[in-house]
Amino acid sequence: MPCRAQGTDRDEEMVGNGRDGETQDPLRMQCHAAALRGAERYLGAIQDVGVPFPLGRGQQGGRITSTSCSGGKGAGNVARGLCSWSLHTLLGITPQTTQQVLLGEEEIIQREQRCLGRAERETKEQQQFSIDDLKAQPNQTTFWDGVRNYQARNFLRAMKLGQQAFFYHSNCKEPGIVAIVKIVKEAYPDHTQFDQKDPHYDSSSRKENPKWSMVDVQFVRMTKRFIPLSEIKSHHLAHKADGGPLKNMMLFTRQRLSIQPLTQEEFDFVLSLEEEKPH
């Protein structure tokens, strides 16, 4: 099941939108509440709610926006993009650390210029979508829907026109990279969240403030050869030891997230593998 952090009006009212200096005690209460009910529920409760809060002396106040939860497994018309930042460490931490973690998430969105997208090739009929399906679409373009994870959604919303991504077949006998796609329409509301017949329907989402977004992607080209997950993982393990470009690749450190970023260095290295003979 997708990870859905359910926010309530009461939770949002507790967060509030007061001026700096007025939310110190409620924020402390939130941190304690988060430790009790789990970071996912807390993050979902404040998703898309701007929350100004005071920091220590000499520090500037900030705003919490578009928070997220990790985990989950989405499936929709097209592959899930990949981009993530773990927020499980939010349990029982200070407001200062909260801001640093959330800002860290936004900073990584801006820093990472490439993504890796997963398509579920051998799953249920209504969920599977391969590169051949994308190529068969009009203008070889379709929407990327069904993302139901706050972190994945945030990174999806950060995708820019023309940004490239690897198309990655998952949930199949041999997962791996098969093609390159590009973003041809930036984030807009995912209509499936309002469709009661769709498996990604979300009764808590409102049309005036939709929770979930999607982007349009277009086929660019096939990679010169199939690049299997096992091969990428072998490089990742070697680079962890020698400091190579894949040492921190999120495909292996945040496996359950459907959208993860790739640094330009990671993207270039993985792309260079298409020129090599299979291992």
TrEMBL record:
Q: Which Pfam families match?
A: EVE
User: What PANTHER family does the annotation carry?
Assistant: THYMOCYTE NUCLEAR PROTEIN 1
Record domain EVE: where: 124-272
Q: Give the keywords, sorted.
A: Nucleus, Phosphoprotein
Q: Name one GO cellular component term.
A: nucleus
Primary residence: nucleus
Name the job this protein performs.
Specifically binds 5-hydroxymethylcytosine (5hmC), suggesting that it acts as a specific reader of 5hmC.
The ranges of region (Disordered) come to: 1-27
Q: From which organism does this entry originate?
A: Anser cygnoides
The entry's protein name is Thymocyte nuclear protein 1
Gene it is expressed from:
THYN1
Places the protein is found: Nucleus
